[in-house]
Amino acid sequence: VQLVESGGGLVQAGGSLRLSCxxxxxxxxxxxxxxxRQAPGNQREFVAVITSGGGGTNYADSxxxxxxISRDNAKNTMYLQMNSLKPEDTAVYYCNARGVxxxxxxxxxxxxxxxxxx
Length: 118
Prior knowledge:
Helices cover 0% and strands 53% of the residues. It has 118 residues and is mainly beta. It is globular. The termini are far apart.
């Protein structure tokens, strides 16, 4: 499975961005998709996750109410709508996809930079 993120960029505080993650390859092995981020000097942290049917979502406390995760299974694409962005949201955002049955595949995208200016 290959994951390609897009949609990152530079935005002012209070602005919005929408990230996309397009999956290709053996996507039938994917059950859960999510977004993670890593700021300079920090460890990669969880942002949001969504189940295969799209009915189950979860968010980090720091983004809940501002970010919305969604997926279009017909297009094998996941999205992250980010509103009310803050400078502390600045990071490289990574797409993750994984399966929940053996051999428990786990895939990462190359990341897309999001920079929020104050």
